Amino acid sequence: MRIEVYDPELCCTSGVCGSAPDPTLIRVEEMLEEAKAGGATVARYQMSRHATAFTKNPTVYRTLLESGTASLPMVAIDGVVRWVGRYPTAAELQKRLGAGQEA
């Protein structure tokens, strides 16, 4: 399984930095680390650092053209965008990862 996270601009690659990091970003980072430990490959992209990644996935590119950066974050599993405008919950991600392993 490959998880790709197309993040809005963050202060660092995970967004978990500074004296008061956003609790949502802490949860997302923990969730992604758990997915990695379970064998998933995880990539996180920000436009200022990885602009071409946003153009390589047609759904991400089209959504950005239509809705702008308000559509971020987007999360794709194996190239298919599953969440737009929000991060998944741990339960949602686990459900998708489990479904992919059964297929």
UniProtKB/TrEMBL annotation:
InterPro entries: Arsenical-R_ArsD. This is Arsenical resistance operon transcriptional repressor ArsD. Pfam families: ArsD (PF06953). It comes from the Bacteria. One of its GO terms (molecular function) is DNA binding. GO terms for biological process: negative regulation of DNA-templated transcription; response to arsenic-containing substance.
